Amino acid sequence: MLRRTTLAAVTLVVLLGFAMSARAEGKGKSDGEFIVQEVDGKGKEHKAIEAQNTCPITGDDLLGEEEGPIKITRKSDNKSIYVCCDSCIKKAEKDFDKILAKLAKKKSEKSGG
After folding, report:
1. pTM for the full model?
2. Residue 47, SS3?
3. How many CA atoms lie within 13 A of 14 on its CB side?
């Protein structure tokens, strides 16, 4: 019995460690329609993150967080949005088209069009 409990505990620790390291390394995940990956907010992503500026779910500043923003890309059209944390992913996936429309409207208003 002790051996079985120990094996289960070790398995759980290994699985949790793997899940955490995959996110920390920015490997992301892909589940059907979307690819989800953490980005550092620098380099080629910086301009797009800066343009979006805030999380469409919480309204929090994307570049002001300790963790980098999370990029959600729809595979079918390669369009992306950024959210501030894991908690926002499912909601953003569910409302993806609404969020894209809102961001496009915001961009249009900013550019004076």
Report:
1. 0.70
2. helix
3. 6
Q: Give the domain ranges of the chain.
A: 28-110
Contact 69, 84 (CB under 8 A): yes
User: pLDDT tens digits, residue range 42-95?
Assistant: 888 888 999 899 999 999 999 876 778 999 999 999 999 999 999 999 999 999
User: Which one, of 25, 21, 61, lies nearest residue 40 by Cα?
Assistant: 25
Residues 6+ apart with CB under 8 A from 99: 56, 81, 92
Q: What angle do CA 79, 80, 82 make, to 5 degrees?
A: 165
Query: How confident is the model at residue 30, as a pLDDT?
Result: 61
Structure tokens at 14: 């290994």
* Per-residue CA distances from 83 to 15, 24, 31, 67 (Å): 25, 16, 17, 11
Is the predicted pLDDT of residue 23 greater than 60, yes or no? Answer: no
What pLDDT score was predicted for residue 2? 57
